[in-house]
Specification:
about 550 residues, 7-stranded mixed beta sheet
Length: about 550
């Protein structure tokens, strides 16, 4: 080193403070931790929802809502192991634990058109979402099966549920209205089928306060909107409300004459479902006696449900037509067709009467001795529908009741329509026996003679036309006119102003004068014919006088 050079030493100090550059990462970390805390703190339970399809559902987009408020989000969608359904994972928000229990319901909200109306139109632009209906149970649950359709009645709705049974399925659908005197008071909630009973089940919900209208005497029947009937009773058309006309439904009420009863206390009422109100009224007659009727005429037009009447009053119903055909091996002409009827006690006696079925049946046995018989009558000429009428005929004191199987036989006779048919058939047979061929041949000969006469008349007319067209015939009117003029001229000579008339008048006056002068002479000759010889002087006869001494 030279002497001129100087050596400088650095003074190094150790710094203990953190650099300001680390502030930003620390702040970001703090925010992240805070967000994580908030996420964990606000995070609710994770649930699984089973659905038949994932139509309209998207991960991270489809929300779960309650009263249009977001309470969760779909986080995952997977197929089941058997590919039969969809598993949806959803993350619920904080404090939604109390909403999740074994009565909670889920369904997808999307545009729908059904019997209950149009719903879900708001999802056309925003997309589908999952609706949650919280339950009221205290049992927690995290796995759910979504409903295929939105529930008709919310879980919080108050009212009463009714379970109806019918022999056929498809009579009602979910959402169909339940009406009372035309006013909608409930909806059909659920439909199912009972395999054991082989009956269709329809669950209804009647809203409060209309549930008080349901009494122990109430009956339910279907409403098709418009009911057209053409049977033995005539033509009948019944139209219900417009909603029933479009979607059908069910109605209930108290049938005429039925006891009012008391309100139901059970949570689920079980009742039968009838097809119409007529069937309801038929179901009220629970006491009846069955009879067999035998006819040797056609029963075409007689169906089950046709009335059995007495002088226009219904006393029973046809149950089976035909019931059986009583073929006879020995006598084919005695073959008869059997029908099964029931005579209903409630149609003839008041409900308060204490008449038993045995007494009711014995009374008919006496009526049979008095001549009571059944016959087929036409109820509707347009459709040919028949019904059974009963009337008293000649008494049969020695009448004995016969049986077919376990049923007594109700005596019968031919109806008026069958008798008319028989008379018409007899008339046609008589007409068929008439010598129509001979009459037709005679008529044909007469027609030939008439044709010849017409030809002859036609020839005569032609000759007459020729005669009229001749010149001499044409001149006849002129000659006749000349003769008439001459006759008129002759008659004019005898008119009051003519000379001949005046001369004749003078002659008649002179003749009158002569006659008047001859009248005295004629009178004298008439009085004394000999006066012309002896004259008119007369000598009076002498009168004898008394002699004087």
């Amino acid at each position: 080193m030279t002497g001129n050079s100087t050596q400088t030493e650095a003074n190094i100090k150790k710094q203990n403070q953190i650099s300001a550059i680390w502030i930003l990462p620390l702040v970001a970390l703090g925010i992240a931790l805070w967000m994580l805390f908030q996420f964990i703190n606000n995070k609710g339970p994770e649930i699984t929802i089973i659905m038949p399809t994932a139509e309209g559902i998207n991960i991270g987009k489809t929300e779960i809502k309650s009263l249009n408020v977001k309470v969760g989000m779909v986080t995952d969608i997977t197929l089941s192991e058997t590919y039969d359904y969809i598993k949806i994972k959803a993350q619920m928000n904080k404090n939604t634990d109390r909403m999740l229990n074994d009565t909670t319901q889920f369904w997808v909200v999307k545009p729908r058109v059904g019997s209950a109306g149009i719903s879900g139109l708001e999802t056309i632009l925003s997309g589908a979402y999952i609706q949650i209906q919280p339950g009221e149970s205290t049992t927690s649950k995290l796995n759910f099966t979504a409903l295929e359709l939105p529930p008709i009645t919310p879980l919080s709705s108050k009212g009463i549920r009714v379970l109806l049974s019918h022999d056929q399925a498809g009579k009602l659908h979910i959402g169909d209205p339940v009406s009372y005197q035309g006013f909608t008071v409930g909806r059909v909630e659920k439909t199912s089928f009972d395999l054991a009973e082989k009956k269709a089940l329809y669950q209804l919900f009647i809203f409060e306060p209309y549930d008080g209208l349901l009494l122990s005497g109430s009956q339910f029947w279907l409403t098709s909107g418009i009911d057209v009937k053409l049977n033995a009773d005539g033509f009948n058309v019944q139209v219900d409300s417009l909603q029933s006309l479009l979607s059908g439904g069910v109605t209930f009420g108290l049938p005429a004459g039925e006891d009012v009863g008391q309100p139901f206390d059970d949570e689920l009422v079980k009742l039968p479902l009838f097809d119409n109100y007529e069937q309801v009224k038929e179901g009220l007659y629970k006491q009846y006696v069955k009879f067999i009727m035998e006819f040797d005429e056609s029963i075409r037009g007689l169906t089950a449900g046709a009335p059995v009447e007495y002088r226009g009053i219904r006393i029973g119903t046809v149950l089976e037509a035909p019931y059986d055909v009583a073929f006879s091996e020995n006598n084919a002409s005695s073959n008869k067709i059997q029908i099964l009827v029931k005579l209903e006690l409630g149609r003839l006696f008041d409900k308060g009467s204490n008449i038993s079925l045995n007494t009711f049946q014995q009374a008919f046995k006496q009526h049979f001795k008095n001549g009571l018989k059944g016959k087929l009558e036409t109820g509707n000429l347009l459709t040919g529908a028949l019904f059974v009428d009963t009337e008293f005929d000649a008494p049969e004191p020695n009448f004995k009741m016969t049986e077919v199987g376990k049923y007594n036989v109700f005596p019968t006779k031919k109806g008026e329509f069958a008798m008319v048919q028989q008379q018409l058939s007899s008339l046609f047979n008589k007409v068929n026996d008439l010598p129509l061929n001979d009459a037709v041949e005679s008529m044909a000969r007469s027609m030939n003679s008439l044709d010849k006469a017409l030809v002859s008349a036609n020839t005569t007319i032609k000759n007459l036309n020729g005669l009229v067209s001749e010149e001499a015939t044409q001149n006849l009117p002129a000659d006749i006119q000349t003769s008439l003029k001459q006759l008129q001229k002759t008659l004019d000579g005898f008119s009051p102003n003519s000379v001949m008339y005046n001369d004749l008048e003078q002659t008649m006056k002179k003749f009158e004068q002569v006659i008047s002068e001859l009248q005295p002479v004629l009178k004298q000759i008439n009085d004394k014919p000999n006066s012309l010889i002896f004259g008119t002087d007369t000598v009076q006869d002498p009168i004898p006088a008394k002699r004087v001494n």
